[in-house]
Inverse folding.
């Protein structure tokens, strides 16, 4: 442990706070913990991205189906107009 001189402004006092110096082992442990946290965050991001991709795919499928129905309805309406114009009902 190494002493670090600090100041308590509220009490107008100096005091020593003791900190453990970094060692190679402690730094490796910190990096391993950070690595695990990063891997978990990446997994969460990948999961969220997959969900977003699925939602986007579903939305695009819904839009395509709606457009297909609209095109079919338009074709039916045009066919009726052609029949009416050929039959002289206009």
């Amino acid at each position: 442990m190494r002493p670090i001189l600090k100041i308590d402004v509220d009490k107008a006092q100096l005091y020593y706070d003791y900190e453990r110096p970094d060692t190679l082992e402690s730094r490796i442990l910190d990096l391993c913990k950070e690595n695990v946290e990063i891997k978990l965050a990446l997994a969460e991001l990948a999961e969220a991205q997959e969900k977003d991709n699925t939602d986007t795919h579903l939305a695009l499928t819904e839009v395509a189906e709606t457009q297909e129905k609209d095109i079919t309805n338009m074709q039916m309406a045009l066919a009726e107009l052609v029949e009416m114009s050929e039959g002289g009902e206009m």
About this structure: Residues 4-85 form one domain.
